[in-house]
């Protein structure tokens, strides 16, 4: 037998009901029947087990009813337990047990009708011999009414149990639907929260990208500021020193130096103002130097006292503005370093070697006799590693070449300092934008 899970107070209540019904039956049982106690205990036990195990309760009821009919006992109050058990079999039993309960209704009504009509005539007093038609009609009428009475008495509780079960199933279905709707709503809220988190993450990523772009722009401006100021000051210092020495020999030559100093200072001031404006407002970038501006740079450096031999070989290729800016700054920084640290009496060789896939720039200058570079300052790849005394010019040139997709190396040979830069000229090479 299958036992249903019940709370402790439900089990206590069912046992209490069974005990009360048993006591009431024994008190009001006026028939001195020696089997009455067994019948009462059976019916009371079925009441106690009707919800805990409907199948066991139905078996106990059938066994007790059969015993009652075999002993020809008169039905008593405790027989109402049959109705409670049939209700429980329909409301709490398995599908098979419900069919057994329905069969019990029909079979029980037929057996009960036969028992009270022919076996135990104490209730209705039906005679066993029928002498006329009136007694026969009365007998059939009583049989029909008794059967219908038992059918209603046993069938209504079973139907009530079915209705309660259907109502409980509908409520469970409704609760399950409400639970599913709540789960769906919660899932939608979680999805909305996830979308909000994703959107916030995207905003954070976009903000981080903007911050990186701003930082890169500031770094670019700082490099340009260094290049502009260092170059212009080097030209101004060279012209001022030259004018100071030339004044003693020929005062008329001082005017050309002063003109160069003034023009260089004005250009530097304008470029610094543009860079500061970019740094302050973070708006559109000002026009940047390109390859065609190299001629003006050479003229300016020549006026500052350098002798420059600018040559080009191969077929020039079309370069992006970022790469042209990198080339211009590398040449500018190299010539400025020659003006500051090199032998300005010797010619500076600047070679542009155009190849199918890249442009190689070689800038060779003569070192001053007292300005030698320690071998420890060269890296394993032959690249010059400047110390703090020399500043960050070579580092800036190397960084610009790398950002343009190329490379830059420096070394000394035969008393000359050589800068070699390689900048890709193919469109397939991925560029890292300086802007």
Automatic annotation (TrEMBL):
Residues 217-283 form the Signal transduction histidine kinase subgroup 3 dimerisation and phosphoacceptor domain. Its EC number is 2.7.13.3. It catalyses: ATP + protein L-histidine = ADP + protein N-phospho-L-histidine. Residues 6-167 form the DUF7134 domain. SUPFAM superfamilies: ATPase domain of HSP90 chaperone/DNA topoisomerase II/histidine kinase. It is an enzyme of class 2 (transferase). Gene3D superfamilies: 1.20.5.1930, Histidine kinase-like ATPase, C-terminal domain. Residues 175-218 form a coiled coil. GO terms for cellular component: membrane. The keyword Lipid metabolism does not apply. GO terms for molecular function: ATP binding; phosphorelay sensor kinase activity; protein dimerization activity. It comes from the Bacteria. This is histidine kinase.
């Amino acid at each position: 037998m299958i036992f249903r899970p019940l709370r402790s107070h439900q089990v206590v209540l069912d046992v209490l009901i069974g005990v009360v019904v048993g006591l009431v039956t024994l008190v009001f049982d006026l028939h001195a029947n020696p089997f009455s106690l067994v019948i009462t205990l059976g019916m009371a036990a079925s009441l106690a087990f009707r919800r805990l195990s409907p199948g066991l309760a139905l078996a106990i009821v059938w066994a007790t009813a059969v015993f009652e009919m075999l002993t020809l006992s008169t039905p008593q109050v405790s027989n109402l337990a049959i109705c409670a058990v049939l209700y429980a079999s329909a409301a709490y039993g398995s599908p098979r047990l419900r069919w057994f309960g329905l069969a019990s209704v029909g079979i029980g009504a037929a057996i009960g009708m036969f028992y009270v009509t022919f076996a135990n005539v104490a209730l209705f007093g039906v005679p066993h011999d029928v002498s006329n038609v009136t007694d026969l009609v009365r007998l059939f009428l009583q049989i029909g009414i008794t059967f219908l009475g038992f059918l209603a008495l046993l069938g209504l509780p079973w139907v009530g149990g079915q209705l309660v079960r259907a109502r409980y199933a509908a409520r469970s279905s409704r609760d399950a639907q409400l639970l599913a709707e709540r789960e769906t709503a919660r899932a939608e809220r979680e999805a909305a929260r996830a979308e909000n988190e994703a959107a916030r993450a995207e905003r954070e990523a976009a903000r981080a990208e903007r911050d990186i772009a701003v930082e890169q722009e500031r770094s670019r401006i700082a490099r340009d500021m260094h290049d502009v100021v260092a170059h212009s000051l080097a030209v101004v210092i060279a012209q001022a020193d030259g004018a100071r020495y030339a004044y003693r020999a020929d005062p008329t030559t001082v005017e050309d130096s002063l003109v160069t100093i003034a023009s260089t200072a004005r250009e530097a001031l304008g470029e610094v103002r543009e860079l500061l404006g970019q740094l302050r407002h973070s708006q559109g970038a000002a026009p940047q130097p390109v390859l065609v501006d190299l001629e003006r740079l050479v003229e300016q450096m020549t006026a500052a006292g350098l002798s420059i031999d600018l040559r080009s070989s191969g077929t020039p290729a079309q370069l992006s503005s970022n790469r042209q800016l990198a080339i211009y700054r590398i040449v500018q920084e190299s010539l400025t370093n020659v003006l500051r640290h090199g032998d300005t009496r010797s010619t500076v060789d600047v070679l542009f070697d155009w190849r199918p896939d890249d442009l190689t720039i070689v800038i060779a200058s003569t070192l001053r006799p007292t300005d030698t570079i320690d071998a420890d300052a060269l890296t394993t790849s032959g690249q010059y590693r400047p110390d703090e005394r020399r500043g960050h010019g070579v580092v800036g040139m190397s960084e610009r070449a790398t950002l343009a997709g190329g490379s830059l190396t420096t070394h000394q040979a035969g008393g000359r300092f050589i800068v070699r830069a390689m900048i890709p000229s193919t469109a397939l090479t991925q560029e890292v934008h300086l802007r």
